[in-house]
Specification:
five-stranded antiparallel beta sheet, Uridine Diphospho-n-acetylenolpyruvylglucosamine Reductase, domain 2, alpha+beta, 19 helices, eight-stranded antiparallel beta sheet, Uridine Diphospho-n-acetylenolpyruvylglucosamine Reductase, domain 3, homodimer, Alpha-Beta Plaits
Chain lengths: 558, 558
Amino acid sequence: MRRKWWGWGDPNKVDELESHPTLYSFLKSQLNLSGSESYPTARAEDIKLPESKLTKDLMAELIRVTAPENVCGGDIARLIHSAGLGYKDIIRLRRGLLPDYVDAVVYPVDERQVVKVLKVCEENYIEVLPYGGGSSVVGSFEVIRDRGSGGVIAVDMTVMGRLMKLDATSGLATFEAGVSGPDIEAQLAPHGFTLGHFPQSFEYSTLGGWIATRSAGSSSDIYGKIEDMVVSLRVATPKGIVETKTVPKSAAGPDLRQLFLGSEGTMGIITQATMVVRRVPQAKAYSSFLFKSFDRGIEALRQLVQSRVKGSTLRLSDERETWAFYNSAGEAVSTSSKLKQEVGKWYVAKRGFSFEDGSLLMAITQGGPNEIDGERKFIADVCHAHGGISLGSSPAEAWLESRFDQPYLRDSMISHGIMVDTLETATVWSNVRRLHDAVAVAITTELERRGFSSLVTCHLSHSYPSGSSLYFTFMSRQQEGKELDQWEAVKYAATSAIVENGGTISHHHGVGLEHSRWMVAEDGEQGVAALKALKAALDPKGILNPGKLLPRKEARTP
Amino acid sequence: MRRKWWGWGDPNKVDELESHPTLYSFLKSQLNLSGSESYPTARAEDIKLPESKLTKDLMAELIRVTAPENVCGGDIARLIHSAGLGYKDIIRLRRGLLPDYVDAVVYPVDERQVVKVLKVCEENYIEVLPYGGGSSVVGSFEVIRDRGSGGVIAVDMTVMGRLMKLDATSGLATFEAGVSGPDIEAQLAPHGFTLGHFPQSFEYSTLGGWIATRSAGSSSDIYGKIEDMVVSLRVATPKGIVETKTVPKSAAGPDLRQLFLGSEGTMGIITQATMVVRRVPQAKAYSSFLFKSFDRGIEALRQLVQSRVKGSTLRLSDERETWAFYNSAGEAVSTSSKLKQEVGKWYVAKRGFSFEDGSLLMAITQGGPNEIDGERKFIADVCHAHGGISLGSSPAEAWLESRFDQPYLRDSMISHGIMVDTLETATVWSNVRRLHDAVAVAITTELERRGFSSLVTCHLSHSYPSGSSLYFTFMSRQQEGKELDQWEAVKYAATSAIVENGGTISHHHGVGLEHSRWMVAEDGEQGVAALKALKAALDPKGILNPGKLLPRKEARTP
């Protein structure tokens, strides 16, 4: 999994803002950009990290329990493994300057090596950052070193990517946890199965990372979030292996899997997972609808997920996102799209709708041909009943086609001096609109206070009978020289608004470092105490991903 | 919730084996009964319990934090609250002789009182049995007293039965945890909602009990098990209240709810739960099919649940259960049923099938009329494709109609000298047949060894894309004077077979005392250590349901 050290994905792939002229001009006007803004990237050869704090003996010990080629102390490897890929990480990475760095990276090739590495680390009080694809956007890989420790290493799991067992009768596949999204699908495809988990980080993230962060993907409305697909786990902890039973359901006490789902590397290193897999759907169909307002769209979406719609990804944009989508989607798709777009605008306006204050719903329906037809018709009926008009298949197709490219465009936006980040939450239906408005206002107000115009967009992309996730994207011109201050202030304002208005601090990005200060607000004093006790039982020395998920007031000594 | 002290349910209701002559004669021949066997029940007035070990001061203290009418020290109340309703419990209850008894029963009227009672118990090292409907069949209410404790009380939650909040938009209802099944449905019905949870204990069990044991009900194929419906919880622990967020889904670390789902009163007392509720279905339809073998039935059922069947309860009986059902179901339903049965037998035989070695699938489909029609047709198509023949609606109707009465019939069977009990497990599809045979053989062999004929039946009543539950009923003549020895031996043989053949020790009955010795086999040393650490954090003195779920080697001292 070779990747760019300073930003997203494939080192040879770029998606420049300049090749999206309509979008760029839209952003210039919205964000008050002159077009001359920029944020530079250091040259790799200029990056010099402080020396590793691991003694030669400890390095030798790590090599002894793995192999020389499985331990790396190079600067770029250390840099990459000391940050995630959130806005804050990228701002720092591009300068080659992080608060601290892991001292080495270990790449175990199997579970036995993971266990041995943990044993060495436990015995020598080396702190461990379990690492999959490294795509955290919540600070999960920031190094928070206990000065009393013998060092900090990253355990990169990406060598462990095998399909270990396929039980086709039960629809179960057992993978090593370091397997990447594409490698999962490539190993299942010959058998006619899919896992059906497609987060935006799909190409550069791992199964273990998904499980450790309770990941969601674009088809989670159909297949469930990752926690809904995990049937059993094997986890290496400093106290030994924890293995849960491979059974469909149990009443044998609290569900052990749940201790590791969302544990973010603090309770153990997930080494293997047995997952529900499904037959690759026979067909897909796309549809899109425009509502006169976000409120009408919310009502339609709620009715859909509270009915028997089970085979469709549903994604509803608020007014700002609908307008931004209109100003960006067209040009990426085809050369004739501009014309189509104008025709579409005319048609929409003629019927009394507008992209500027409308709300766009996209539906991707999959299954057998008959199932698709029935479900599409039901979706159309419900949307029409809520005053929606059909926009055909192209908006949904355009979105699905371009989604894995969006992080590349984000890199270019940052280069052009734009602060751009996302955050997500979830709440019950009766509270969706209140939470939506509170978060949007909090971000806009904080940026205004600092003298910046902003663009804050939102969609509901994972919905449930009882409520929905809300996924926000926010942008403004970077505050030059104070890029991180600006971001911290916005993040603080937004998360405060979430906590004060009935949202969860994360629907699928996790907690990491960024949200850890809010864990008491989320789970209460007793809840956090219970999780800390759990961690102490599994990781008594506190070597695993210290300072993440559960805030620690003081560093532990060995 | 007034109930019989020595057996199931309504004190005024009986269902005598004599009113099921066909069944009784079938059982006589299967179990080698003379018909003169019996097991007596003591008279209530003859039951004298040992004196309460609670001091007068502590009784006064419990009354002070509640009210005089909320604390009870009567013999029958103490007896009922010191046992569940498994076979072992009933054998003991009928003699009025349990291994030990709670010293008093406290009935809190609200969460504040629960907190206060726990505080008194924590301060004075009084052990606490949280108690809902008392229908445990795994020994959850057996008193295992630490001699160093100041006493043992039951906290009976059944006064706390209010619907606290209904959020119709989000489809969420918040109940006090002591609410009974009928009271849940009665409070939801005026609003057009149902919880959809109908365990066989429905009439005499509570929401808190369901949550604490990961209960399943007859419609769980449609609505999910209870753990799938809980959106948030409030739990009183000796360290304070734990409250989880009311959000549809979260990635904020491990899922706190899961620490209490299946905690069986060992981690805290569930005081309130916010549940997903659904609109009452418009219609129901029944269908039944007979397969030439259990294997053919399993294949059909697997295909149904791995497809899009979402609105049907599906229940597949093995050959022995199909034969027993044929020999029992008809007579309870209607006077003309005997004739129908004969006609049915003739029709079935003519087509080359037999009830004696066939496998019966019952389906109850619900939803809107259109949904029902589509799903029923799909079910029929799949069953026919696997060689099944349709038996019409009556077997499924008969089963659904009589299911809440079966525990009354069990009481009569016990009176007639029959050992009758059930146990359940779950496994993946590829292992269903192996596990089924292993458990049936283990039970039959153990009983044979002791010189008893037996009847062991099984059905798959809760199925998932990856596997299914297996629900066994076993019967034999009681071993007179050694009723408990006989039962223990069978239970041990069956559970050993489950553990050795890839099953979970419980799919929905829980762990209690009976399965606690198997928890290490289920969760591993590290898994159990993690759960114990969790309990120690929430209940440091170990006052909550001691000796249950997590085996304790030695009693704690305060």
